[in-house]
Structures are given as C-alpha cells and as structure tokens.
Amino acid sequence: MVMAVLTLVVPLPAGYGGLRWLAAGVLVCMLLIGLAGWRIGPERAGRLVPRRLRPVLGQIAGGAAMLSQRRHMAGAVGLQLLTVLGRIASLAALLHAFGMPAGAAPLVVCLMVLAGLVAISPGGLGVREAAVVPVLVATYGMAAEPALAVSLAVQATALVVAGTGAAAALAAVQLRPPRIA
Questions:
Q1: Does 96 fall in a domain?
Q2: Which of 110, 108, 114 has its CA nearest to residue 151?
Q3: Taking the mean position of all CA atoms in its chain, how far away is CA 24?
Q4: Per-residue DSSP letter, 181
Q5: Could you tell me if residue 42 is inside a domain?
Q6: CB-CB contact of 105 with 157 (8 Å)
Q7: Would 180 be classed as within a structural domain?
Q8: What domain range is 6 assigned to?
Q9: Which of 28, 69, 113, 175 is deepest in the core (most CB within 10 A)?
Q10: pLDDT of the chain along its 181 residues, tens only?
Q11: Comparing C-alpha atoms, which of 127, 129, 109 is closest to residue 118?
C-alpha cells in the first residue's frame, strides 16, 4: 500500500504515467475489498472463498487478528512506515555517495519492490537491475555504469546486513541453546 501511495506522489519518468492509474486502481480495490469484508462480516466472507483456499485464509486472518486492536495496529503501521522511510533514506545516502540525485530514492525503492515480485532469480538479482538502471538513465540522465553500481551496492548491503544478523542469531543460540521439550 505504501508503494502504491509513493507511486502516486513520486515524479515518474516519461512514458510511465500509466503506473499512476495502476497504483490508484490498486488502492481503490484494496479499499473496496476492505469495506466489503467489513460490511458482510468475516464468517460470510469466509464462505465466499473456495474450500481449497480456506486454510490459507485462516492463516492470513490469524496474522491480521493483531490489527483488530488499535495499539497493535498503530505499532505495526508505525514500524512499516519506519522501515520504508529507512529504506528510502539509506538508498538516498547510497545514491548521493555515487554522485546521483538523492531525490531518485523513492522511485528506486518503488521499482525495487516491484522487481522483487518477479521471483526468477535469487534475491531478484538481474530483475532489479533491469528495472532500475534504464529508469535512472532515462529519467536523470545518468550513465548506465554508476546506476548499475548503485543497484549492485544495494544487493551487497543487503547481503552484509543479512549475514551480520545471521551471525548474531547463531551466536545467541550458542550462548543459550534452545530447550527441546
């Protein structure tokens, strides 16, 4: 939802204006589905779902149950917004470090998230570059090499952060082994 809103407010390159209509359509559909689910109730809405998908719907509903309390929902929304803002800020710093305009960060984050939906390679490698590099080159007049370097630097940063987190988790398990019941 945050990416759809960003698509509406971020300057898009020439020829990508249709994405605004797509983002607006996604937001309207989400609103209509939410209103319909609220209006008809969860039990009746569950009966509209095919039997094969009901277990999946039950798992989704279990995760969404925390959103029924305002405090938990506010915390979840706040953390998600902080995450998105953190991604944009870190990408703006990375773009600035490569001598590119930091204002391109919201657009690049949107493209990276959309490219991540196409899971044809590990970590979205290649797909993200195919989405980000031409847009940076066309919109901001950058050379392709620095734009590609930024995209690869994002992947390297994610790898270092994930590896550090994994090492910390392994160290925590070694310090306090889990108890098997």
A1: yes
A2: 108
A3: 17
A4: -
A5: yes
A6: no
A7: no
A8: 2-175
A9: 113
A10: 777 777 777 776 666 677 778 888 888 988 888 788 778 876 777 777 788 887 887 777 777 777 777 887 788 888 888 888 888 898 899 889 888 888 888 888 888 877 777 777 776 678 888 888 888 888 888 888 888 888 888 888 888 888 898 888 888 777 666 677 5
A11: 127
HEC-encoded secondary structure of 78-146: HHHHHHHHHHHHHHHHHHHHCCCCHHHHHHHHHHHHHHHCCCCCHHHCCHHHHHHHHHHHHHHCCCHHH
* Burial annotation 9-35 (CB, 10 A radius, 16+ → b, else e): ebebeeebeebeeebeeeeeeeeeeee
9: CB partners within 8 A, 6+ apart: 106
C-beta separation of 102 from 92 below 8 A = yes
The pTM for the full model equals 0.64
Would 18 be classed as within a structural domain? yes
- Which residue do the tokens 């009901």 mark? 54
| Residue that the structure tokens 């309207």 belong to | 28
Q: Could you give the CA distance from residue 102 to residue 120 in angstroms, rounded to a whole number? A: 29
Place of tokens 């589905």: 33
User: Which structure tokens are listed for 48?
Assistant: 């509209």
3-state secondary structure at position 41:
coil
**How many distinct structural domains can be found in the chain?**
1
